[in-house]
Structure formats: C-alpha cells, structure tokens
Automatic annotation (TrEMBL):
Official protein name in the record: ABC-type quaternary amine transporter
Enzyme Commission numbers on file: 7.6.2.9
Spans traversing the lipid bilayer: none
One Pfam family per UniProt: ABC_tran
GO CC, alphabetical: ATP-binding cassette (ABC) transporter complex
Amino acid sequence: MNIKVENITKKYGDFLALKDVSLSVNEGELLALLGSSGCGKTTLLRIIAGLIEHNSGRIFLNDSDISDWPAQKRNTAMVFQNYALFPHMTLEENIAYGLKLRKLNKKEINIKVMKVLEKVRLGGLGKRKIQELSGGQKQRAALARALVIEPDILLFDEPLSNLDEKLRVSMRKEIRRIQKDTGITSIYVTHDQREAMAIADKIAIMDGGKILQYGNVDDIYYRPENRFTAEFMGHINIFQCSTQSSGQGKYIEFLGKRIETESEKEIVDIILRPEEVEICDDGIEAEVTDIETMGPIIRYRLKAADYELYSDMLNKSVKRSIDYGDKVKINFNENTLHIF
Ligand SMILES: Nc1ncnc2c1ncn2[C@@H]1O[C@H](COP(=O)(O)OP(=O)(O)OP(=O)(O)O)[C@@H](O)[C@H]1O
C-alpha cells in the first residue's frame, strides 16, 4: 500500500502541533520520522492510525481517502516502546488476541501464531508468560502481535527506546529484515539519527510540527537543505562567514579557498562534516588542540587560521602518530561544504 498524507494540521487547544504536513511512503518502503522530542512525530503517527483526529488535511491508502475511517477499519498495526502486551497472558495468547477478535477459528489461529513466532525467532517460547521474557524478546513479541493480523501498514513508535545499545542495534536489523521480508509499508518514529539511517529507505526530518526535509538516506546526510537537518544528522563543523561581491557574483573566502555562492545573505552558515576534513601532507596549516580516539575513528580538534574545527580520520589511515600541539596540514573538498 502507498500512504499519502496531504496538508495535515493538528491543534491541541490553541497549540499547533502539526502545521500543514504532507508526505508519502511508497509500497514496501520504510519511512523514518526523525526529530527531537515534541516535534509532532507521535501525533502524526497516531493520526495515520486513526487514534486521534486531525483538524484538516487528508490521508490516502493507495487511492482510498481514509481520513474519516475509524481506526479498526484502517488495518494498521502499531508497535510501541512499552510493548503494550498483556502481562498475565502467555506469549501465544497475546499474539492470538487480535485474531480472536477477528473471529478466526482455533486451527487457523494456531497456524498463524506458530508461523509468526518463527518469523520473529521466538519459536518454542509460546507458552511463556510475558514476565518471563527479556526486553528484546518482549519487543519481538510486540512485533509478532502486530504482524499476525497481516496489516497493510506497520507503525512503530520509538520501539527500541527501552533496550540497551547493543540490543537496539541487533533489534533494528531484525525489524529491517522482517519489514523487507514481509514488504509491509512502514512508518518508524525515532529521535535517533543513527537508527533512522540504519533502518529507513526514506527519512522525514521534523521540527516544530513541520517536515523540514524528506528524502532518501543519502539526500538527508549528504545534501541537507537546511541547517537543522545538517546538525541533526551527525557531528558537524559550523562557521559563519560574510559573503563578498565580485563582477561574476557572490563568493566567500574560507580557509584560503574562494567559494562561489548564490546566497543573497550577507552572512552565511558554512557546514563541513568532520569526515570531509583530511589531515594530509599538503594543505592548510593547522594545530592539533585535542584528540579523541573512538575505535576505528580518531577525532582531532584543530585550529586553522581563526577557525576551530574537527577532523574525523580513519584510525588506520593516519600515517604518523599525531600529538597534542602538533602542526599538521589539512584539506577538504569544497564541494562538500554546505552553505545556508
Ligand atoms: N493530548 C495533548 N494535549 C496537548 N498537547 C499535546 C498532547 N499530545 C501532545 N501534545 C503536544 O504536542 C506536541 C507534539 O507531541 P508529540 O507527542 O507528537 O511529539 P513527539 O515528537 O512524538 O515527541 P516525543 O518524542 O517526546 O514523544 C508536543 O509539544 C506535546 O507537548
């Protein structure tokens, strides 16, 4: 199913939580809604599920306008951070619950439950009580319960926030595998940019009830359209620079390079990702003011001309040992600069 959301607005009292939000998700794709706390991610997800009403705008599944359909009719399933499982029931009973409501017979229910438990790798644990499952197993159970009803749309609301880092990484791979396997169109709410990049086909960056940028993972990371997106998607160097005019147009001078810009502004923000700043044999002089080793990557803090900036180098590509206070040469490809 394709999902299309057009010009959704949502008010809580006087507070405008969603401002004219539009987006679409293609059949079989996973869209991550990424933004910080309070930006409206959960509100949008719940509106799509039909759990809360919106003030204006339309929602389409394929070509059907479902804006006025009740939640039960939409055939969406939601996976929550707190699992929302029934603690007094066994794993099997939890998963069978939605099928019983749909009045399937016992045999059909049994087959579907067994199959989905295998899919989420919980086969053999069906008779366990929910309390007897680990955090990761509970999240698999929540996913199984969502999958078993064969939804058209899967909605994930920060499903991995309760798990520790290692489990989060393995569970997001698992969710990705299952989502690709089943081909169910999905929307995944998260505030973690690494999680979004690891799991999604497309990312929508949200802030203040608006979508600031929508695109595939590379677009969002390498071609940010605004400062917020660039800052949200990882560590950055950011500088302010004044623009100058020449006969041919406007330009900025930055670390000895003259860079043309179409910006009309007098002062622009320049963003340069640390992995684009290379310590090399030839280039701009800089002094090392701090070193942080992060396993495969070393992050150097540098002072070059009047700028402080970071360089992330692959540990194994650093040819000689570099110490605090050392003088080094740095370079960067000016095409990797983002000017806002
Ligand atoms: N029932 C409500 N009544 C009033 N305001 C609400 C209600 N629900 C949410 N809000 C407000 O709407 C805004 C968006 O909330 P929402 O839960 O959608 O954000 P979010 O991006 O999912 O944040 P989080 O990651 O913290 O869950 C927030 O400012 C929140 O305080």
